[in-house]
Sequence to fold (895 residues):
Amino acid sequence: MLELTCVSTGYETANVIHDIDLTVAPGEIVALVGANGAGKSTLVKTISGLLALRAGTITLDGKRIDGLNARARVLAGVSLVPEGRQIFGGLTVLDNLRLGAYARRKDLDDARMKQRIDHVCERFPVLLQRLKEPAGNLSGGQQQMLAIARGLMAEPRILVLDEPSLGLAPVLVTEIFRLVASLRSEGRAILLSEQNARLSLAIADRGYVIENGRVTLAGTGKELLHNPEVAERYLGVGKGVNVADASHHQQMVDRLKEILAR
Amino acid sequence: MNLAIQIVIGGLLQGAVFAVIALGFSLVFRVTGVLNLSQGAFCVVGALVMYTIEVSWGWPTPVAAVAASLATAAFGLALGALCFVPAVPRLPTSSMLILTAGLLTLLQGVLLIGWSSQPYALPPFSGEAPVVLWGVRVPTQGFWIAGITVAVVVAMWFVVQRTTLGTALRACAENRVAARLMGIDVPRMTLLSFGMAVLIAAISGIAVAPITSLEFDTGGFFTNFGFIAVAIGGLGSFLGSVAGGLFLGVAEQLAAGYVSSLFANALALALLLMVLLWRPNGLFGGGAVRRTDVRDEQRIYHAIVRVQGRGGLVFAAAAVALVLVLPLLFPSAGILSSLVITGILYISVLGLDVLMGYAGQVSLGQAGFMAIGGYTASILAVTYGVSPLWGTVAGIVLSVAAAWVLSFVTLRLRGHYLALATLAFGLLIDSLTVGMVDTTGGPSGLAGIPAFSVGSIVFASPIAMYYLVVGIIIVLVLALYGAMRSGFGRALIAVRTDQTAAVALGVNVVRYKLAAFLISAALGSLSGSLYAFYFHFLAPEMVATPRSFEMIAMLVAGGEGTLVGSALGVALLTLLPTVFQPFALYKTLAEGLLLVLCFMWLPEGIFGFATVQLARWLRRGAPPATAAEKAMP
Ligand SMILES: Nc1ncnc2c1ncn2[C@@H]1O[C@H](COP(=O)(O)OP(=O)(O)OP(=O)(O)O)[C@@H](O)[C@H]1O
Ligand SMILES: [Mg+2]
Fold:
């Protein structure tokens, strides 16, 4: 569905992303794994139209979207939940949600808007209780929920999440991942850029490892979890351990799967 | 009692305009984080366009009012689309402040050309006869003003707080990147807020024109008072803006009615300084985001390549030689006189460069120090027979003292508030020079000022004055050049680049900011004194707030942070009107235009541009590259 071919991009003077190929199929969860500064956020910004492409193409369902601005990409079905939440703190929770559907406001009368807010908030009951409050009053975890809910308001075909677990307590982290895993439905795909490689690979169908702006490894979530290099670099497993056999690692992965499945 | 009510009503009507302008300030500020100083000028544009349509063309009042409002709004939208919207993401907010000051000057220039410099008043909408209510006479126009103001405020409130469009506008104010992600067209929202602010300014200008007389430069007055109102009420707060405007109007009229109009202005400004000092977020709450007070960007340093080594020395020697023989090349009295004025103003602009170009602080009140220096030296010389030299020294001491007192306010302030405080200071000095008739001669000025002299050497002729000024400049430039290359200059640049980091590095930020401010005050004062001694005459408008804006234009056009570059800007704006007499009418327009254009397309100024070209040429031994190549980083 989403397809990046030979994408390169960067900021004024620096080239950050080099020749990246990446695909996301309908209903799939794809994880991007990489160290700080690898270029995950840069890639994600390019996909959502905040940053212009230097070379390559981006297509959605076979149609080029790389020439479109951020607004047109929202309309095409790409929705980004940016790093650091970026909610509108001075506006109410309700206004934040409404703005999520701003690009589609022409098709939404008041009744349908309300219906959509109710639908999206089924997963986020805590937001429903605080609709009239300024979003800045929410806790960090609640703000992250709001950011995700706001991203869902545009009814995206593909939801792009940048570091959703950043700065959250471990309990909330699993909660957020469980939520992300549950969002995959009705053909909605998810692209997840995360520091927390273990959890994100555990819920992902496939993953890409990005280093210095290039894809260095790609495979299914399971393959990557059990890849010794990934384990050493991103999962904190000691050097030289044979991950495929390491029972400790296996146990940990199993436990995570179990927690997430609950 | 009736008198008091009469005065309060007058104050409310006056305050209604301030309120609407303040509302426009708040609207644009909320969406863009920029204080748009051109706001007040659109009141006058609206009113004068109305005058032409209604009085000159004879259209019926309602049609003319609608047409004038829409025409002004359309004009404002065009100007906003060309100058304001593209600049917002490119320039830091403090530079935007200066850019909008340029727009204000530009608009006044347009009005001067289109409507010349006479005062205009519109006929009242519904007859001259006032209505008498319970023994109080109220002009019928008062009801129009009240009604229109209420309608404007309610409409604005509704649009911003109750519509999807308003939510989108507020979202831009909160977080521009996230707003883009939501599919909000941020530049369009910026333009929209600018246009709405212009529209309401035009409407209120048209409404008050029948009870005030308007000239091409009244916009500056409206901007100043709208600015004060919004500061009192709280930047960004709609309710606060309206309350601040009405409060300011009433307070001013009461002071004018019961004390004197001099006192009224001084009161407004003192009120502002007090509010800034104690309640920087406004008396009525409001939620301005505090921004840092330095112009946090590498706008200039990335652009300027200094001419190094021998090239630089040769260049400097050539420049000094040129300056020394200039009077011989142009013996005409008019040009010589302009050259002297260029030199004198350049001294003041040098001070401004230390403050703005190096320390990165914004000052809108530099002319205030020229006024202190000029008037102190002249009054001492004329009334007390003190020698010009000692008078000048006294002026400098007084200016530095004033700057020091003012620094209690400014050093605590950040961002727009700092610019506001210096503007308030400049305006306060303006109202003093006009108002203290017994000491300063009031609006008609102070005549009979002697020529400058040191001991028995009298600099009576323009040519003597020229070489005196050149000598002073050479000494100053060398001294400042040395200072800026020393630890002092580096500390200033550290303050400019990143104040927080500078503090962390152990730079005593407050002390350096104060030092830069005192230097700029001293040089402004020196320049003001020389100015008075050269003309043998001093009037308020020679050293008033428009002069402050003019000097900023000169600095920016010439090149900030270069010490010598601004001389080009001063020369350009001083010599052109002399060389091309017809140009004098267009001077205001040219100043504004130059400021706007330089900020948008030549951020390193003429000097920076020339230096880059020269450096390139020296390095490659090749002819300079085309202008387009360097146009915008
Ligand atoms: N606005 C910017 N201007 C210039 N360079 C930038 C900008 N933003 C990021 N970079 C650079 O691009 C590179 C990639 O940054 P990016 O934010 O994409 O990393 P990331 O993989 O998301 O890291 P993290 O996990 O820390 O969020 C870094 O070297 C960074 O310095
Ligand atoms: Mg990132």
